[in-house]
Amino acid sequence: MRDSRHGYRRPFLTRLATSTALIGAASAVQAGSPVAIPANMLPQGGHFVAGSGSIGTQGFTETITQTSQRGIIDFSSFSIGKSGSVRISNGMGATLDRVTGGNLSQIMGTLTSGQLFGTDTASFVQMFDSRNAGSRTLSASGSVQDGNNGGNYAITFVTAAGTINKEALTVTAASQTRIYDGTTSSGLTPTITSGQLFGTDTASFVQMFDSRNAGSRTLTASGSVNDGNSGGNYAITFVTAAGTINKEALTVTALSDKCCVRQQGVRRDHGLDGERAGDGAQRR
To answer: What's the average model confidence in pLDDT over 141-156?
Structure first.
């Protein structure tokens, strides 16, 4: 069937009696060269043209509830942003969703179908495939409590794309005043003033003066986090601090001493006890 750009409607989903059929169709509409869509994007312009039911939106979730055995729904566009979710409940009936617009449908968020019956309850969770920062995959798992060990439901789990952003750390050098010692070493440890470490991650930070010389100085922090990912889970901003290296105080003391002056057969000793004549000199 030709698409709507040539005057015909193209089917988006066919016979959504089971979640497996829904998931297969959702994968098919991701082909081609899609353009970026908003994270909160949901299907637009949906209305029943055959059968009966309702379409409601709350927040980033759109719920399609079909009350007839068969139904046909037309949408002007059918894309789901990464923060969006669409749930189709049609019991054991069949639904045909048709996209009448010309834009490529993209399923970046969650698209589910099927429903629980009676007092049956579900327990589902999802996990990232790694704890490390970067582009990740979310996998769902769980079961239905139906009094039959979940045997009344055929569950298909679909992964989703996710992202773990780096934890932002601000590490600030400690202000310091010390006496000149000929080095740029500080001895104090910078502190994390914004953000935090998680789990068993540890930090190794140091700080140094910008010069070994006395005067007004700048203290600069450096280092890394040991997180099992070469520090890649943290975005660190280092903040300098003002410091001072005071001059080393030196006291220089002259030593007591004496010397001799010999002149024309007369020796004169100069010392703390005055002048003394000798070696043939006559005293008067």
So the answer is: 90
Map out the domains of the chain as residue ranges.
4-115, 119-165, 167-246, 253-284
CB atoms within 10 A of CB 275: 9
Q: What is the pLDDT of residue 275?
A: 53
Please tell me the chain's helix, strand, coil percentages from 3-state DSSP, rounded to the nearest 5.
Answer: 5, 45, 50
Closest alpha carbon to 29 in 13, 15, 44: 13
The span from the CA of 115 to the CA of 261, in Å, is: 120
Q: Which burial class, exposed, middle or buried, applies to 268 when counting CB atoms under 10 A from its CB (0-12, 13-18, 19+)?
A: middle
* 192-222 pLDDT tens trace: 999 999 999 999 999 999 999 999 999 999 9
Residues 86 and 22 sit within 8 Å (Cβ to Cβ):
no
Task: Label residues 197-225 b or e (16+ Cβ within 10 Å = b).
Answer: beeebebebebbbeeeeeeebebbbebeb
pLDDT digits (tens, 9 = 90+) for 50-68: 999 999 999 999 999 999 9
According to DSSP, the residues that pair with 139 across neighbouring strands are 127
Superfamily of domain 4-115: Single-stranded right-handed beta-helix, Pectin lyase-like (2.160.20.10)
